[in-house]
Design a protein that fits this description.
Low-confidence stretches: none
Distance between the termini: 10 Å
Strand order of the largest sheet: 13-16-15-14-17-18
Helix content: 25-40%
Mean pLDDT: 96
Largest sheet: 6 strands, antiparallel, barrel
Length: 397
């Protein structure tokens, strides 16, 4: 059985190993100069391999129920065991994130490549697929350079469009579309958000821990102001749910209720009635954030004494701290995104095998499908699971 894996990323390498260990002769066709470059960039170079809390709630797409079949066959426990067998000692950190004990994404890529070599997987780099044609005996694969290859089965594991500098060009969508597969609208996900006006720019580089709300969704964690808008893990997670919403709210002190903040404000005024407003929030909020917030609320001049604040102004301050509104103009580009939102409709694939329902012998895995996860190891878990299942199924089918 000859199996061609198109794409040498996380899902592609997992598929190659699974297929080879199931007895197939496997060749990986990678468009870039080397396989697994995107793996090296995950988890800030540490590779957030998976998350022990991974469940349906962490994934998005038109039909996330598709994942149920995948979870039954290869999920978190199996992933950790798979990598331990390859040589990775895993550790669990905050919010269930799983990393290699070495804190090196390169270690994850190394063990995958070592196992591919041991299993006899043939790696062909610099081979950018331009066409896949169904033939009587299987598939004919053609590169943009005119190179040709034959295979009995094909697994599309090209990734999405996120981080094109690392090789994600959206090739898989074109290839699947030629076979009749439907592709949803594609958007950058796990990405920073752009805000209107210059308020965020005035606070560029400042971080705080709080809560971000976008419609019915909310995320808590470290938030960063940038020259174009806002960033940080909570923003990345909310970006997966972004559907042209126009506004977000920042809660600068989510550990305190509005009532407690109101009492805190009166207490601060009582203790330091003569302190100028420019220093009023020192020790409570980042000094610069406090100053910009007051100006945005129209409470001026900052040379005023705290004791001059009216009851309405005090309540306005509390509301600003708990519900600071920013207009959203969109997300940053594909170059900044970690993953693609959207992809090939999963209803055209079998969740038990990852095989196309439209073309026998054609499989897909990873980001090319209409499944994307939250920030925190969920997308790599999807890549490992879908890749392993596709590889095993292709070899045994």
């Amino acid at each position: 059985m000859r199996i061609a894996v198109i794409g040498g990323g996380a899902s592609g390498l997992a598929a190659a190993i699974a297929a080879a260990e199931s007895g197939a002769k496997v060749t990986v066709y990678e468009s870039g100069p080397r396989c697994g470059r995107k793996i090296l960039a995950t988890g800030n170079g540490r590779c957030n391999m998976t998350n022990i809390n991974a469940g349906l709630k962490n994934y998005h797409g038109r039909e996330t129920g598709f994942i149920k079949g995948v979870m039954k066959r290869f999920w978190v426990d199996e992933t950790i065991a798979f990598f331990e067998e390859l040589g990775i000692v895993a550790k669990v950190e905050d919010k269930g994130r799983v990393y290699p004990n070495s804190d090196q994404a390169s270690a994850v890529l190394d063990v995958l490549r070592i196992r591919c070599g041991a299993d006899g997987v043939n790696m062909v780099t610099g081979f950018e697929v331009s066409q896949i044609r169904k033939t009587k005996g299987g598939f004919q694969i053609t590169s943009y350079k005119g190179e040709k290859a034959q295979a009995d089965k094909v697994i599309i594991a090209t990734g999405g469009k996120a981080a094109p500098d690392l090789g994600s060009k959206g090739t898989g969508y074109v290839l699947l579309k030629e076979f009749g597969h439907r592709i949803t609208e594609l958007r950058p996900s796990l990405v920073q958000m752009r805000t209107d006006g210059d308020t965020a720019g005035k606070l560029k580089g400042i971080k705080f821990t709080g809560t971000v709300r976008m419609g019915k969704y909310a995320e808590e964690g470290e938030i960063l102001f940038t020259d174009y808008g806002i960033s940080g893990p909570p923003i990345f997670s909310l970006s997966s749910r972004y559907e042209n919403q126009k506004e977000i709210e920042l809660d600068l002190m989510s550990a305190y209720s509005a009532e407690k903040l109101l009492n805190m404000m009166y207490m601060r005024i009582g203790r330091n009635p003569d302190i100028p407003l420019e220093s009023f929030f020192v020790g409570m909020l980042n000094k610069r954030i406090g100053q910009v917030l007051l100006k945005e609320l129209g409470i001026a001049p900052l040379s005023r004494k705290a004791c001059t604040l009216s009851e309405q102004e005090i309540r306005t301050c509390v509301n600003g701290i708990k519900r600071w509104k920013f207009g959203i103009t969109g997300t940053q580009s594909w170059n900044n995104a970690q993953v693609t939102k959207g992809g090939a409709l999963t209803e055209d694939f079998n969740p038990s095998t990852m095989e196309s329902k439209l073309v026998n012998g054609l499989y897909a895995a990873g980001e090319v499908l209409d499944i994307d996860g939250d920030c925190g190891g969920y997308n790599l878990q999807w890549a490992w699971s879908s890749g392993i299942i596709a590889g095993r199924s292709a070899a045994k089918g």
